[in-house]
Amino acid sequence: MNTEYPCFTRFTESIEKHDLPQRFTFPFYYQPHPLCVLAAEQLQRHLETQTQWQHNFGLFDDPTNIIGKMFGVLLVRNVQGDLGFISAFSGKLAGQNHIYGFVPPVFDLLAQDSFFLSERVAINKLNEEIKNLENTPELLVLRQQLVTLKAEHAQQLSALREELVENRKIRKKQRQRLQSIGDKNQDKTITDKGLQELAQQSVHDKWRLKELTEHSQQLIGLLQVKVNEFIDQIAQCKLQRKTLSADLQAKIFCQYQFLNKELVPKSLVDIFADTALKTPPAGAGECAAPKLLQYAFQQQLTPLAMAEFWWGASPKSEMKKHQQYYPACSGKCQPILKHMLVGMQLDENLLIRNYGEDKKLDIIYQDEDILIVNKPTEFLSVPGKEISDSVYQRIKQQFPEATGPLIVHRLDMSTSGLMVITLNSQANKYIQKQFIHREVYKQYVALIEGLPLEDGGEVNLPLRGDLYDRPKQIMCHQDGKPAHTLWQVLKRYPENNQTKVLLTPHTGRTHQLRVHCAHAQGLNMPIVGDDLYGIPDKRLHLHAQILKIKHPTSKKIMIFKVDAEF
C-alpha cells in the first residue's frame, strides 16, 4: 500500500511485458485487459489469505448467511506516474462499508455523524409501534370474534335457506293441489283462501331471511367498527412511516454525488431522472465500478482499465461463477457510468456491432406459405435498437410481395438454427396457433462446460427478466413463468471437460436453455461461449437443429433438420 494513496496497490509481479491499454474499458461488454487480470489475481490471493475480517462467501462448509460478492479492480496511474490498481467491493463486506485496502463508499450511510442513523431511529420506532398495534390482545380477540361471528352467520344463513327452499317446494305442491280442487268445484272460496295463506307464508319466510341477515350484519358491523379503530391507527402509522422513509431515501440519493473526469458532480436523483425508472433503485451507487471511478477522480488517479469478478457462491436466483469476470449491470450502473465516463475515450461498444453483416441467410425450404431458414449465429431475428439487419429485414427485402407478419418466433441473436417464416396472414395465424398451443416440436444441440454424471434428465426452473440487468433472466419461484427443459447427453469430451447435449424445450421462455444449463439448480454447466451466463468465446454453442410443424395449407407434418457447425 502507498501511504499517500491508502488504496493504491502496486503490482507484486513484473508488468513490463504488458502494453498499456489505449482506451478505457467499455464496462458493459469487455474482455479484461491482461493488467486487470494480474490485478484481479493479486486481489484474489489477498482474499484467500487475509485474516483481518470474516465474511462467508460460501466457499467452505458453512451454509448459513452465504453472501457472494462482486469485486472490481481499476488500473490507474498516479500523479507521480506510477502504475498500480485500486480495489472495491459491491455493497458491504463483512457488514462494513470501510475495509482497509478497498476504496470507501461514495456516501457512507453508517458513519457516526450521518443523518441516516438518527432519522432511522424515528422509522424504527414506528415499526415497533405498528408491530405492537398489530399484536394488541384486544385487536386479536376482536378479529377472532369477527371471524367466529361471520362463520356462525354463514352457517345460520345456509340452514335457513335450506329450510326456505323446502318450504317453497311444499307450497308449490299445495298450490297445485288447491288449483286442481278449484278446477273441479265451482266454489273458488276454499282455493283462494288457501292460496292467500301460502302467499302469507312466502312473505313470512322472506321476512325471516331479511331479519336474520340484518341482525347478523348489525352485530358484525359493531365488531368491525372496533376493529377498524385499530386498523386506522395502524394505517396512519404506516403512512407516516412511508412518508419518513421516502423523505429519507430522497435525502440519501441527494448525498450520492458522482464525479466524472472533469470533476462535475451529479446526484443519483438527477442521473435517474431521465431513465425509464425515474427514481434510483435500491443499492444504486453501491456497485464496485462507480466506487472505483469516484475514488480515482477524487485522488487525481488516471483510470486506464477496469474489470469486475464474482467471488463466492452464486445468489440463488442468478448465475454467477466464482472468479469469473462480469460486465457492469445495465439497470443500476449504466446511468451512473454514462455520466462518470463523459470525456473518456472508451473501447468499441461491441454490443452494437453488426456481426451478421457478412453472413448468409440460407433458405432450406420455400413454398407459397412458409419459409424455413437457417439463421447464422450472432444475427438478429428482428431489427434491434441499433442494428436493423436481421432475418425479418432480409426476408422483407427478398420477398416484397409477402403479406402480414413474417416472424412467428425468434431465436436469440447468438443462437443459430431453424426458424419458420410465414409469407401471408393466414399462414401466420395457423403457425402462430401451433406455437401458442405448444404443438411445434423444437430440438436444440449445445456444447456445455463440464461432464454431467447422468445421461439425461429434466430442468424445471421458473424464469423472469432481471429488472436491473436486462436482457438477463433469473430464476424466480414467486413471479417467474414456468419453464421446462428435457436434456440428453450425446457425447462427452473429457479432454476438454465439455459435453454435447440434446435440449428439448417444452416451453419457450427467453434464454430458457441458456439459464437451465447455467443455473446451479439446473445443469450447473453453462453453454460454451455464453457471454451472459458463462464465459464468452468465438460463438454461443447452441443450435436449433430440428423443427417440426404442421403445414398451414396441406396440414401435413413437416420435419426439418440442419446439423450444427460446431
Brief overview:
This protein has 566 residues and is an alpha+beta fold.
Give an account of the 3D structure.
- With 566 residues, the protein is α+β, with helices and mostly antiparallel strands.
- It is 36% helix and 18% strand.
- It has 10 helices and 17 strands.
- The strands form 4 sheets. Strands 7, 8, 9, 10, 11, 14, 15, 16 and 17 form a 9-stranded mixed sheet that branches.
- Helix 6 runs parallel beside helix 7 (333-340).
- The longest helix is centred in the middle third of the chain and has 67 residues, at 189-255.
- The protein is extended.
Secondary-structure map with pairings?
Blueprint: H1 34-49, E1 69-77, E2 83-89, H2 115-134, H3 137-184, H4 189-255, E3 257-258, E4 266-267, H5 268-273, H6 288-298, E5 302-311, E6 325-326, H7 333-340, E7 362-366, E8 370-375, H8 391-398, E9 416-422, H9 425-436, E10 441-449, E11 456-460, E12 463-465, E13 473-475, E14 484-493, E15 498-505, H10 512-518, E16 542-550, E17 557-561
Parallel strand pairs: 9-16
Antiparallel strand pairs: 1-2, 1-5, 3-4, 5-6, 7-8, 8-9, 10-15, 10-16, 11-14, 12-13, 14-15, 16-17
Order of helices and strands: HEEHHHEEHHEEHEEHEHEEEEEEHEE
* Residue share in β-strands: 15-25%
Distance between the termini: 48 Å
Number of beta-strand segments: 17
**Rg calculated over all Cα atoms:** 34 Å
**If helices are DSSP runs of H or I spanning 4 or more residues, what is the number of helices?**
10
Classify the helix fraction into a percent range: 25-40%
Overall body shape = extended
> Oligomerization state of this entry?
single chain
Query: Major β-sheet, in short?
Result: 9 strands, mixed
SS-derived structural category? alpha+beta
Q: What is the mean predicted local confidence, pLDDT?
A: 93
Low-confidence stretches: none
